[in-house]
Amino acid sequence: MQEQLSILIQAQYPLIYLNTPEEERAERAIASIAELKPLRRLFVWTSTRGIVEQGQTSSQNSGAAQHNTESIQAALQWVIRADQKDPAIYIFKDAHPFFDHPVTVRCLRDAVANFKGTQKTIILMSPVQVIPIELEKEIVVLDFPLPDIKAIEEVLDQQLGQVRTKKVSAETREKLVRATLGLTQDEAEKVYRKAQVTNGKLTEEEVDIVLSEKQQLIRRNGILEYMEEDEDIDDVGGLEELKHWLQQRSNAFSQKARNYGLPQPKGMLILGVPGCGKSLIAKTTARLWSLPLIRLDMGRVYDGSTVGKSEANLRNALKVAESISPMILFIDELDKAFAGGAGSADSDAGTSSRIFGTFLTWMQEKKSPVFVMATANRIEKLPGEFLRKGRFDELFFVDLPNAEERRDIFGIHLRKRRPDLDRFDLEQLSKVSDGFSGAEIEQAVIAAMYEAFAQDREFTQLDIISAVKSTTPLSRTMTEQVAALRDWARMRARPAATSVAEYQRMEF
Ligand code: ATP
Q1: What pLDDT, in 10s, does the model give residues 277-288?
Q2: 341 lines ligand 1 (CB under 6 A)
Q3: Are residues 77 and 52 in the same domain?
Q4: Please, is 65 exposed, middle or buried when counting C-beta atoms within 10 Å of its C-beta (0-12, 13-18, 19+)?
Q5: Pocket test for ligand 1, best of 270, 278, 279, 280 (most atoms within 8 A of CB)
Q6: Number of domains in the chain
Q7: Separation between Cα atoms, residue 208 and residue 293, nearest integer Å
Q8: What is the pLDDT of residues 348-399, one digit of tens each?
């Protein structure tokens, strides 16, 4: 990116938008570009100080603010008026809240016109991308990427230099570096410092501290969330086709797979009746593939406080996800997340469709090993673009469990709570629970346990049967919805359960 930015500045681009939450690091990168030939003076504007000249190339006024330049309009007028001929870079930090004023936009256009043929560039630096329509054709947008491995290594070296610790092996170094990928430079520094303060050293043993600190930081951003993956693929009853598909791809992100010529898997969409194990399968996949599982909370992406904030949120979250890759990105209820889609009539349709566009473009262009695992309960709300071939590697349909699968699911949940399975008749439980989802089966077992616990005794087969009988499963209250989903999926999705898969193969 630094190279790209340098080329734009050398090529006399007058207006650049630099997207980044890392002001200091970005400013350092720009300062080093300013030192290239021809030497450029560097000015920084903030609404608190006005215009301040920086660095070694500056005049004697360096460090002092230009009088009366706190207002962005005054600052831009100063920049345009300044009769200095020297090449210069003007960084405007957080100018985006002022773009709703027509004079600000006009001043920026004047500056662009004024800079033609000069070695002067304005860089609008902000963590949020907001571009006034009038400037769309004049501005070049760049994302300042999170620190790469090399930059993180420098942070680690600096930190190790401050710790009196014996030399760390190359392997430990790599683990410590990888553990902070996805964080800003400041955050990486903090995480290393915390690990070092906690244990008084920075070695392999501290990798876990670094990882848990990173999890906390990622949690704090509120949009991405680490999911615990304590469930095993054997904890999922039925869904044999789906499990087989996942098992086949266990090493799909390895170098061996690349050398073999296999493409990197992009992702899968799991459609299905609520409570049939869609989220469960995501968790177990993470375990099966030994990859971190991170949930993208689309509800939190939306933020109406500033125009463009939602897209910036999504872009940042995807950037963090990529920097942690290989990983699994879990998006629950894709149908709700993108209900607005491209042609929505919702009041926030503009935001929804921009978010949707941002996400689709990312899916299309992503090269990093991020496997998107998305789930959806309703297809009528799901934008058609997601269902087009090639977007996801596979579209699976998870139906209500059949008799055999219900028996397995009862077995799994009873075994988790009581090892002496023999006292339960799983066949009978499966028979009485026709139409139940996996989640409802689990709930019936728990309800039976509560009943017996309240009477201070062990729970029995009869307790479970009576819990089942007193439950009306969703499939009965939502008959039409379930039938519609099944009809739709029969033609277009791959069944997750073997029995259905075989049945369909015979039918077509
Ligand atoms: P929703 O669409 O409501 O999010 P879902 O399909 O994602 O539902 P899960 O959240 O995975 O369903 O299921 C809830 C719980 O039900 C699981 O944590 C698990 O305990 C149980 N469950 C569901 N399906 C199965 C299954 N096939 N095997 C074992 N347990 C299951």
Answers
A1: 888 999 999 888
A2: no
A3: yes
A4: middle
A5: 280
A6: 4
A7: 16
A8: 657 777 888 888 888 888 888 899 999 988 877 777 788 777 788 999 999 8
